[in-house]
């Protein structure tokens, strides 16, 4: 009976130790926003009346991690599917929504944008779906993919149909692409490759050797 209990204990122990998945999170709550640049970024968000929740630092298998990230709760425009974002990405995205998306919608489409549709932020994967062998900026919550815009009058303007669609939609989307190039480290759209036919990719990485933005 004792031997049986011991065997059961070992089985449970093995199960507990072997249950660690490749995506198990290692939390370091005390490390959240300890650096001065990170704290300054939080102040920037607060000054812009952006509501957000700081997230605990997390590390995943494969080198993926989310360090000094936030969850955006509300800002000038509603946005979908936003997960963990590095604070600089969140600050630039919310500023782009307010100072680029809103005026461009009124100027080119004669209406207000009430919602920005995205394909998400954090995603533990490599660039180009794994072929490059290099982690994507999504793997650290440092990128966001924008797919469409919903107007107050009910109209939906998507990158997929609008980039080469109606004249006002083409002008609107190209204006947003150009303005994004001034705020993000890398901006990729439908003219870059087929993988970006249906969205804009924005991240805070610097792709050029001189540190300038990569905009395509």
What is the radius of gyration computed over CA atoms, rounded to a whole number of angstroms? 21 Å
Any low-confidence stretches, pLDDT <50, length ≥5?
1-30
CATH topology of one domain: Muramoyl-pentapeptide Carboxypeptidase, domain 2
User: CATH class of one domain, please?
Assistant: Alpha Beta
Task: Summarize the biggest pleated sheet.
Answer: 7 strands, mixed
Class per helix and strand makeup:
alpha+beta
Run of helices and strands: HEHEEEEEEHEEEHHEEE
Q: Distance between the terminal alpha carbons, to the nearest Å?
A: 70 Å
Which CATH-level-2 architecture of one domain?
2-Layer Sandwich
The proportion of residues forming helix, as a percent range, comes to 25-40%
State the shape: globular
β-sheet strand percentage: 15-25%
* Number of contiguous helices: 5
Instruction: State the total count of DSSP E strands.
Output: 13
Overall pLDDT score? 84
InterPro entries: Extensin-like_C
Organism: Sphingorhabdus buctiana
Pfam families: Extensin-like_C (PF06904)
Protein name: Extensin family protein
How would you sum up this structure in a few lines?
This protein is 32% helix and 24% strand.
Model description:
The protein is an alpha+beta fold and 216 residues long. It has a domain at 80-215: Muramoyl-pentapeptide Carboxypeptidase, domain 2 (2-Layer Sandwich). It is 32% helix and 24% strand. The protein has 5 helices and 13 strands. The protein has helices at residues 2-18, 36-47, 87-109, 159-162, 167-180; strands at 26-28, 51-54, 57-59, 65-66, 69-74, 78-79, 85-86, 113-120, 143-151, 156-158, 186-188, 200-203, 214-215. The strands form 3 sheets. Strands 6, 8, 9, 10, 11, 12 and 13 form a 7-stranded mixed β-sheet that branches. The chain has a 3-stranded antiparallel β-sheet with strand order 1-3-4, with no helix packed on it. Strands 2-5-7 form a 3-stranded antiparallel β-sheet. Helix 2 (36-47) runs parallel beside helix 3 (87-109). This is Extensin family protein.
